[in-house]
Write a structure and sequence with these properties.
With 374 residues, the chain is an alpha/beta fold. Helices cover 44% and strands 18% of the residues. It has 15 helices and 17 strands. The strands form five sheets. The protein has a four-stranded parallel beta sheet, with helices on both faces. β1 (16-19), α1 (25-33) and β2 (38-41) form a beta-alpha-beta unit. The longest helix is centred in the last third of the chain and has 15 residues, at 263-277.
């Protein structure tokens, strides 16, 4: 029986994180929850192994028969599934011999690890772990009349395959797995709406196709513009590497990208971002007030933190940013979402006062506006 994981400091208590990955999502969710975060999970795409695929069987036989000069391995997962499929078909040793006789190039350290685990050696990898850079590395060789076996990462990469074919190579593609849309959009739409309503602090992605699928679902259901607005302003995005960041950059977003393109590095970066930049603090007559995600803490009063809905939370953040200065009704109406009248603002102030554990923190300045007692 495995020992329970050790309890970690609750550095993410109060924060809300969205997870869109399928494979290894349990690792990601556990890492955030053990640090106190609330996690909302909805896979944007699911990985479907193609071990029993007739096409994979045929393409693997073609690679064995062709004895390729070069082999391109793009993902560790794909390499493992490919070797497992070959073993299941009964010609694992033949595939091993064919790959061993070729020059193997890998996209990065994880793909290299899978190649080594299969008892093979690679001859090189690009420094930035991008498929385009891997093809650049291969194009530095004379490919005219050569055969290249290319392990695809879930979909056909026409552009990179075309570059190799233009150089005179014969390219044999192999797809050990594919990306599949979930059976229904409902969980993903709930995640989209949670972002739009600012019910999340960070949204994480571990694969570029998942980003594209997430944005496509939002567009299909008429939610893309408000989704992008939320991601540009109040909800951060975090990705496992520059490749995953590509579709977000194209949408005008600036995601958090770790220096090392690994899941653990992304987790650390999310923690650092939330702890250093998303915790608001202000000294009040009742002691220090702290906002962590959706939770309000007044440590000197004891008791449990108060979780605020998005509207009152946004109002409190505006008042904290003002550091005790008076904010006019016009200023607040211009900065708060879904607050378009003085009556709506008065109701929002009432809801905030009712939710806070002590009276008098939010004060009304007659004929001027509102301020936070400091």
């Amino acid at each position: 029986m495995n020992a329970p994981a050790p309890q970690l400091p609750q550095t993410l208590a109060g924060f809300r994180i969205g997870v869109t990955s399928d494979r290894r999502s349990e690792d990601l969710i556990s890492a955030f929850e053990r640090r106190g975060a609330a996690v909302m999970h909805a896979p944007a795409l699911r990985i479907a192994p193609l071990t029993e695929s007739v096409t994979l069987h045929r393409d693997t036989r073609r690679v064995i028969a062709a004895l390729p000069d070069y082999t391109v391995i793009t993902t560790a997962y794909g390499m493992r599934r490919w070797m497992e499929a070959a073993d299941a078909y009964g010609f694992g040793p033949q595939l091993h011999e064919a790959l061993e006789a070729s020059s193997i190039l890998v996209r990065g350290p994880k793909a290299r690890g899978a190649v080594l685990a299969a008892g093979l050696q690679d001859v090189g990898a690009p420094g930035d772990e991008r498929t385009a850079s891997l093809v650049d590395l291969l194009l530095s060789r004379d490919l005219f009349g050569r055969t290249v076996a290319f392990q695809l990462h879930g979909m056909l990469d026409h552009r990179q395959i075309g570059r190799l074919e233009k150089a005179g190579a014969r390219v044999l593609t192999v797809m050990p797995y594919t990306w599949a849309r979930p059976a229904e959009d409902s969980p993903l739409l709930r995640l989209v709406d949670a972002v739009i309503e600012r019910q999340l602090d960070v949204l994480t992605f571990t694969a570029a196709p998942a980003v594209e699928a997430f944005l496509a679902v939002a567009q299909q259901h008429g939610r893309l513009d408000p989704l992008l607005e939320a991601l540009r302003t109040e909800v951060a995005t975090a990705v496992v590497g520059k490749v995953t960041a590509g579709p977000l950059h194209e949408a005008g977003l600036q995601p958090l990208i770790p220096q090392r393109w690994r899941l653990g590095a992304m987790i650390r970066l999310v923690c650092e971002h939330l702890e250093r930049q998303q915790i608001l603090r202000l000294t009040t007559p009742h002691g220090p007030l702290e906002i962590r995600g959706s939770q309000v803490h007044l440590p000197q009063l004891g008791g449990e933190p108060v979780r605020l809905p998005p509207g009152p939370l946004a109002l409190l953040r505006e008042l904290i940013d003002a550091e005790g200065a008076v904010l006019s009704r016009e200023q607040l109406l211009g900065s708060l979402r879904h607050c378009e009248s003085e009556h709506a603002l008065e109701m929002l102030v009432w809801r905030l006062r009712k939710a806070l554990p002590v009276p008098g923190l939010v004060t009304t300045v007659v004929k001027r506006g509102y301020r936070l007692a400091v």
